[in-house]
């Protein structure tokens, strides 16, 4: 199309895992576009404290729990909202956001936007793979689905402008920003009567992408929460749920947010910690 330009970006990722001899482990991370902003001290402290606090984990009973997800785990959920917002995912029948434009798809406290070149973003781009300038696009605004992500082809089909999200094959999100809430982490914790704290997860797999049904395995430090207090460390559980149900049952979002990007979260997400009500939990095998 006659466009010729160049760009460069920097991504710095640090992951720290700590282990004890008593069958416990912890994970900490720090990511930034600038190496100067990598916080290795707190990443190491998080990993070490989680490992130390979860020594000799016990089994957990299956059931439904109010779960406090740290930003590391919440970002894994939110990245799939960005993927489902791709117009190509909608057209291919793989999106739980299909046919929901301008409808409520989450708690009204939640907003999610995609940014091509945000301050301190992890994967910044000035233009997409078709040479279109990247921009900021509101995906969900106060619980209402506002936009899909487009390249030139899907934009023409939907009679809109490209959002500057062209990947190699289809529209893709660059850096997702999730709205912050009004609660501190301790306040979120204090309001949970019967719940769990999940600090990390892996093996997130979808059974039905169009319904948003998935399962994931918590790893490293996990804890029971009783009457607002972190109590017994646990292991060997699996979460099986649907993302649309989780989005609609977000009880709170934390004031503080953290950039998350690592092997389980491929799309960088600026995420708060979140509390989701009535999450189904089973024992993993």
Q: What does this protein structure show overall?
A:
This protein is α+β, with helices and mostly antiparallel strands. Helix content is 18%, strand content 39%. It starts with 11 loop residues before the first strand and ends with a strand. The longest helix is centred in the first third of the chain and has 14 residues, at 40-53. The chain is built from six helices and 16 strands. A hairpin with a 2-residue loop joins β6 (136-141) and β7. The mean pLDDT is 96. The strands form two sheets. Strands 3, 4, 5, 6, 7, 8, 9, 10, 11, 12, 13, 14, 15 and 16 form a 14-stranded mixed sheet that branches. A two-stranded antiparallel ribbon has the order 1-2.
Keywords for this structure?
285 residues, alpha+beta, 14-stranded mixed β-sheet, two-stranded antiparallel ribbon, 16 strands, globular
Mean pLDDT over the residues:
96
Q: Structural class, from helix and strand content?
A: alpha+beta
- The stretches of 5 or more residues where confidence is low (pLDDT under 50) are none
How far is it from the N-terminal to the C-terminal residue, by CA?
53 Å
Overall spatial form: globular
The largest β sheet comes out as: 14 strands, mixed
Topology:
Blueprint: E1 12-19, E2 25-32, H1 40-53, E3 58-59, E4 63-69, H2 71-84, H3 87-91, E5 112-115, E6 136-141, E7 144-145, H4 152-158, E8 175-178, H5 185-190, E9 194-198, E10 201-208, E11 213-218, E12 222-226, E13 229-235, E14 237-242, H6 243-248, E15 250-262, E16 265-283
Parallel strand pairs: 3-13, 4-9, 8-16
Antiparallel strand pairs: 1-2, 4-16, 5-6, 5-8, 6-7, 9-12, 10-11, 11-14, 12-13, 14-16, 15-16
